[in-house]
Amino acid sequence: MKLLLLLFLCVIGTLAQHEAPKQTVDARGHRPVSRGRETYSPGQAAPPPISGGSRYSGRPTSAPVGKAAQEKKEYPESGGCTHMSEEMGVLCPTGCELKKSLLKQERNVKPTVDQLKRSVDELTQSTNSIYGYVLDMTAEVAQRQRVSEGNGLLVGQYTDSLESQHAFIKDAVDVTFPQNIKILQGVLEKIREKI
């Protein structure tokens, strides 16, 4: 085994001394060499600032282009009430009556809708407060249950200890004391006989 290890080390040593020809890696890879792009040619310097001063400042931006005012179309039927969308023009008499009745209904319905929104907001707030209260109560009940379980375990340990002490005392009173009393009575009688 040692001979094999020595032979292996000799082979590795001779291979390490033998220098393989070094290969150079071309960083350009497979790309062709073009002489025009490989040389550095400094470009033009940046133009001086517009302000003409020596400090550089940002170039001014162009003025924003505003929208041209839209011209209102003139409709041959002028009069009556107009549609909500100006492009639709003037309403017919029936449409005008419908628009007026819708506006009247909107005046009647809008306060009711506002009242309903307020009621919904109040209900949402009260629901959120009740939900928070329920979460708090759930956490409190869980904590009290843990405390109650811990107290139950402690009471169980005390009860077991009390039962073992009660059994010991009962054994001492029922068995040990009468035996000791009989032994002492026997000793007392022997002493009386000797006296």
UniProtKB/TrEMBL annotation:
Residues 76-195 form the Fibrinogen alpha/beta/gamma chain coiled coil domain. Keywords: Blood coagulation, Coiled coil, Disulfide bond, Hemostasis, Secreted, Signal. Residues 1-16 form the signal peptide. It is found in: Secreted. Pfam families: Fib_alpha. Residues 20-82 are annotated as: Disordered. One of its GO terms (cellular component) is fibrinogen complex. Residues 20-29 have a biased composition (Basic and acidic residues). Transmembrane segments: none annotated. GO terms for biological process: blood coagulation, common pathway; fibrinolysis; platelet aggregation; positive regulation of heterotypic cell-cell adhesion; protein polymerization. SMART domains: Fib_alpha. InterPro entries: FIB_ANG-like (IPR037579), Fibrinogen_a/b/g_coil_dom (IPR012290). Its main location: secreted. Gene3D superfamilies: 1.20.5.50. GO terms for molecular function: extracellular matrix structural constituent; protein-macromolecule adaptor activity; signaling receptor binding. Heterohexamer; disulfide linked. Contains 2 sets of 3 non-identical chains (alpha, beta and gamma). The 2 heterotrimers are in head to head conformation with the N-termini in a small central domain. This is Fibrinogen B beta polypeptide.
